[in-house]
Amino acid sequence: MKTPDLEAMMCTERSPLQDVLVWFHSDSRALGRRWPIPVSPSRHREFGAFLDAWQEALEGVDYDALNLPGQVDWHLLRLQIAGTRLHCDHDRREFEDAREWLPFAGTVLALEEGRLAIERMDARRAAEMLNAAANDTKALTPA
Questions:
Q1: What pLDDT does residue 113 have?
Q2: What is the pLDDT of residue 81?
Q3: How many angstroms separate the CA atoms of 141 and 134, rounded?
Q4: Which of 10, 16, 51, 107 could form a disulfide with 133 if both were Cys (CB 3.0 to 4.6 A apart)?
Q5: Which residue in 74, 72, 77, 54 sits closest to 62, CA to CA?
Q6: Where are the domains of the chain?
């Protein structure tokens, strides 16, 4: 086996997409902090729009005009977008598959997302919602 020529393989040019990758990861983390519940339909909607916008922007980049590090980063960003989308789709499908056994999930998600958004909560309405969710759950269990 031939020893690789590391000097020839190392490129000292900076990728023009380096800062773009940092921006994508920063925005993705911020979105994850704002929508921290993996099964939340709101999270799926927000991440879907976020990923669609990034995918469209990436497709607008002239790949052939990029230097080698830029082309590598272009592929890295494409894979990051696809991987994030795959994880979001998996979480969504998993929740949809279990939803019939979780009649209270919509109520709990609505209350938690309202809390995360620092919305003013009507305690009486919240109690009614939780009571209805408890009754729906009791209806699933055999007597």
A1: 87
A2: 98
A3: 11
A4: 107
A5: 74
A6: 16-101, 102-137
Output the six-digit token pair for 46.
């927000």
Q: How far is CA 134 from the centre of its chain?
A: 30
Q: pTM of the prediction?
A: 0.76
- Of 11 and 15, the structure prediction assigns the larger pLDDT to 15
Mean pLDDT, rounded, for 48-59? 97
Q: Quick: pLDDT tens for 23-43.
A: 999 999 999 999 999 999 999
As given in the structure block, the two tokens for residue 95 are 């929740």
What is the CA angle 31-33-34, rounded to 5? 65
How far is Cα 111 from Cα 103, in angstroms, rounded to an integer? 14
Residue linked to tokens 């990728």:
15
Complete DSSP assignment for 14-54: PPTTHHHHHHHHHHHHHHHHHS--TT-HHHHHHHHHHHHHH
